[in-house]
Recover the amino acids of this structure.
């Protein structure tokens, strides 16, 4: 069984509102064992919406619309559904009376247009909306299902996660689609695909890679009678991937690289301190975003200029004059200095040029050096990153965390 989601509203096309409802709806569909094969966004235009609904109904078993159920002239979803299904709109007397009572209780005159919300296609039934005046709809006709949900979050969420989910679970017959996300660092998407391609050829569970900023995610998805059955199908595939990727696999689902790194430090009773130039404190911010990070993160210094590198870390004039602030030598000196000053197990440093122009020493945009110091000495890794300023800063902190994590594991 397949489904398509149609989000309705010109404000979505203008970028004035971010469509988070469609993502939640897709997760609900998957949890009910119904595959979402397409998502569309249509403005407040009746002809275009009718055309989209007809196209979706020609392909999918279930079509879910989001938005456009209010009382105003641009709330066209119920009209479009009726036309697409070949239905008429009919008023539901109990809902019309409920609307009248709603406004009367608030001593507010009800505009005639509000009665639009009491109408439904002849093949449909309404879903009660405890938090608003626009009921949802479930229409079943000719083996097809259309579900219509209101746009406001306080109305959409309880309706989608309550009666609509219950209906969809019964419709599908109890099957679920369950996924586990594997998070990978230090390998590009094409490299990951190359080594696990044989696993991507299976139909159940399926394995699909998708790129994220400075890392790769693998989604392993199984279709089964229950979530527990799906997990049992996913487990051996995950173990195969773990054996292939080794330490490149750092976590699952919502685990972040900084959380995985802090967890390792805490387990070993070790600590880290950071010295940041190009990244401007974002490495420290990532580490301190992890609850309980104070057990492992001692602190850091933002040494954005040559003068602050001298004053706060004691980096020598000779080193800076000979090699420059963006250099392997500067990175290792910064990492060593911050480790010693704060008494940490590890010192991590980032220096480089995030752009948008080459620096005074002619170092190109995106060049960075990541320093790592331990009691045994210090090393630095050179990186050349692409993207806008924020991308380069993010990638440099990702490299720093991965370098630290690999050192801990070694």
């Amino acid at each position: 069984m397949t489904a398509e989601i149609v989000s309705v509203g010109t404000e979505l096309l203008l970028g004035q509102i971010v469509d988070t409802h469609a993502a939640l709806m897709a997760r609900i569909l998957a949890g009910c064992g119904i595959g979402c094969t397409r998502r569309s966004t249509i403005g407040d235009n009746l002809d275009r919406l009718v055309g989209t609904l007809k196209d979706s109904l020609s392909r999918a078993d279930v079509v879910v619309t989001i938005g456009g159920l209010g009382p105003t002239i641009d709330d066209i979803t119920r009209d479009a559904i009726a036309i697409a299904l070949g239905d008429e709109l009919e008023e539901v007397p109990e809902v019309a009376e409920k609307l009248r009572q709603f406004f009367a209780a608030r001593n507010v005159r009800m505009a005639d247009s509000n009665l639009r919300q009491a109408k439904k296609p002849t093949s449909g039934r309404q879903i009660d909306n405890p938090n608003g005046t626009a009921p949802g709809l479930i229409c079943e006709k000719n083996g097809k299902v259309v579900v219509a949900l209101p746009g406001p979050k306080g109305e959409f969420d309880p309706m989608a996660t309550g009666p609509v989910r219950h209906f969809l679970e019964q419709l599908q017959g109890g099957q679920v689609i369950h996924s586990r996300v594997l998070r990978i660092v230090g390998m590009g998407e094409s490299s990951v695909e190359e080594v696990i391609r044989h696993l991507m050829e299976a139909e159940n569970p399926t394995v699909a890679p998708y790129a994220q900023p400075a890392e790769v995610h693998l989604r392993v998805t199984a279709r089964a009678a229950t979530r527990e059955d799906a997990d049992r199908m996913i487990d051996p595939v995950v173990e195969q991937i773990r054996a292939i990727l080794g330490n490149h696999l750092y976590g699952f689902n919502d685990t972040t690289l900084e959380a995985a790194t802090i967890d390792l430090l805490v387990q070993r009773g070790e600590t880290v301190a950071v010295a940041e130039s190009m990244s401007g404190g974002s490495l420290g911010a990532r580490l301190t975003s992890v609850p309980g990070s104070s057990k492992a993160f001692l602190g850091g210094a933002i040494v954005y200029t040559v003068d602050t590198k001298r004053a706060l870390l004691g980096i020598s004039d000779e080193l800076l004059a000979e090699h420059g602030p963006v250099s392997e030598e500067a990175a290792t000196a910064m990492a060593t200095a911050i480790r010693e000053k704060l008494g940490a197990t590890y010192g991590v440093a980032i220096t480089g040029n995030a752009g948008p122009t080459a620096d005074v020493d002619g170092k190109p945009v995106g060049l960075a050096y990541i320093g790592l110091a331990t009691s045994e000495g210090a090393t630095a890794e050179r990186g050349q990153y692409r993207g806008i300023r924020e991308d380069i800063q993010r990638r440099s902190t990702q490299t720093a965390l991965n370098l630290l994590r690999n050192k801990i594991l070694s």
The two ends are 48 Å apart (CA to CA). The mean pLDDT is 94. The first strand starts at residue 2 and ends at 8. The first helix runs from residue 10 to 13.
